[in-house]
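Sequence dictates fold. Next comes a concrete instance:
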Amino acid sequence: MITVNINGLDLQAEEGWSILETCAFYGIEIPTLCYNEGLSPYGACRLCIVEIGEGDRAKVVTSCTYPAEEGLKVRTHSEKIHKYRKLIIELLLARCPTSKTIQDLASKLGVTRVRFSVKNDDCMLCGLCVRMCEEQMDARAIGFVNRGKDRKITTPFDVKSDVCRTCGACMYICPACQLRCHGPEPPGAVCGGCLNIEYPCLDVYEDVHCYLDPCAACLLSEAEKKKEEERKEVKA
């Protein structure tokens, strides 16, 4: 066993665990998109980023690929990390706004706008389908080709694969193929129909103070804010 300091608490972790696995064991929820317990970690979506280290030497890493180490100090819900995650969600929404998975993540993180051009692509390059096909189906019928803006997932030479068994596993795990929102048509890239409250403690502190979902203190704080707004409207 090793000792890792997460959000100011010294916690025990098994050797070989990643930061994400350690946080999940203790109930600290970290958003993910490209991670799946049955597949190898990939770190493509960057949503699971956390801060490690302190002061000027602190850096941002993906928690699914970074191992838990003895004496490592981790901050999972700092103000910086929260802002980075919201920016990443905006980029994902601009690429694939029809995905219910991304819309739900946007609602959970309090994302209400997208400042980038919407492309309406059908792929987020999370690599889940590629890893599923290779690691679970043992087929390797699809893979990544090209780089940069031309990067995509396809079969070898863009022709029908001889090893594909049409099992549908790639579609089953894809966050864009199956999980499409069937609610009202949103006016823009952000639906916001399931929007949750943001962490009010981040308005005062540098880190989130509670990791419950939903946080009772946050709900009470939001209720007080609404009451105060209603009082002001009545006075006006």
